[in-house]
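Incident log, structure service

09:12 report received: a user says their structure output differs between two submissions of the same chain.
09:20 pulled the input from the user's history:
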Amino acid sequence: MVDLENQYLKIQTELDEALLKAAHCANYINGEEVKTFAQLLGDFVNVKHVITCANGTDALQIALMALNLPKESEILVPSFCYIAAAEAVALLGFIPVFVDVEEQSFNIDVKKAEALITEKTKAIIPVHLFGQSCNMLAILKLAQLYNLYVIEDNAQAIGADYYFPDNTIKQLGTIGHVGTTSFFPSKNLGSMGDGGALFTNDSELAENMKTIANHGQKEKYLHETIGINSRLDTLQASVLMVKLKYLTQYTLARQKAASHYDKFLKTIPEIQIPERVNYSSHVFHQYTIKVKNGKRNALKQYLSAKGIPSMVYYPLPTHKQKAYKKDGQALDLNISEKLSTEVLSLPMHTELDEEQIGFICKNIIDFLGINQH
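09:34 re-ran on a clean worker, output below:
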C-alpha cells in the first residue's frame, strides 16, 4: 500500500545527514530543528502559527481543550472517517454528534450537519478525507450562522488547496479556527514515527494550544492551566524538514498515479473512481474506489491472492462502533453505512509507476470479467 523504503532510498543521504546531525547535537526534546520545522511548515501552508505535538489525535484534543468549551458541548463529526475525531471529543467529556457524509466526495454533508445543530452545539470538525477538502465555504457560513468553532482535521490532505469563489486560494488546515495534521509515516508528509501539528492565525489561541501541549505551563514549573505532555521530538523534526522540501513533488507523483488509475478504471461500470470536487485540489492520500453490486470483499480477496494489497477505509462507521453506539439512539447515517460496504483503497504512494498501476487494474478487470460471465 505504501512504499516507504524506496521513498527513503531516494533521499537517503539527506535524511541520514539530518538524523546524524540531530543525534550529535543530543538535544532530543525541543531541539532547534523542531522550531525550524514549525517555521518552514508555517511558510509552506501560509499560516501564522504552527504548534507541533506528538501525533494527530493529540492535535485534535489540544485544539478542543484550547477553545474552553462548556461541559457536555456537542461537537459535529462525520461518522465515515478514522476514529480520532470522535475519540478526542469523547475523551474530553464532550458529546460527538455523528453526521452523515456525501456519497460521492466521502466528506461531511453540511446540510445534514445543520439539521443536527442544537443550543449545545459548539463546534464542527470537518475531516478532509482521502486527500481533498470538505465544502469549507458552506461550513464557514454554517459556523458563522450558529456561532460554531471550526476545527479542520487535515491529517489526510496536507498540501491541498481550497478555491474560494472570489479566487482566493488557501491551504487546507488554515481555513477554520484551528487546523490539525498528522505526520504518521504513511501520511503525505510522513515522519519515521509519530508526530502532529496544529495551525492557526489566531495568536491568542496559538498561545493557549502551545501552553496546553506543554503541561499547561508557559514558564517551567508554573502551570497556568491543565495541560498534557505532547511534543514532536527533534529526530522526527529533522526527518520532516527534509521531506517537506519534497512534498510538492510527492503530491505531483500521487496525482500522476491517480490519473493512471483513472485511465484504466473510469469506463468500468462496476467501479466508481474518486470524485474530484471543483472547490479543492486532490492530493490523494488514498485512491479510493467504490465497488458496486456487493463485489467489494470478493475483489479484495482476489487482489490479495495475486499479491496486490488493498485496504477498506473504513469497514464500520464510528456510530456503529461499540464504544460509540448508544442504545436506542435513532441515527440516519445511511450513506456512511453504505460506503463502508463499497469502498476499497488501492495502493497509493510516491513510487508507483504506470506499469504497476496497469498490473493492478488488469487484475481488477480480470476479476470483474470472470464474475460477469
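09:41 both user submissions now match this output. Likely a transient worker issue. Closing.
09:42 reviewer note: The chain has two domains: 4-99+107-244, 248-372. The domain at 4-99+107-244 is CATH 3.40.640.10 (Aspartate Aminotransferase; domain 2).
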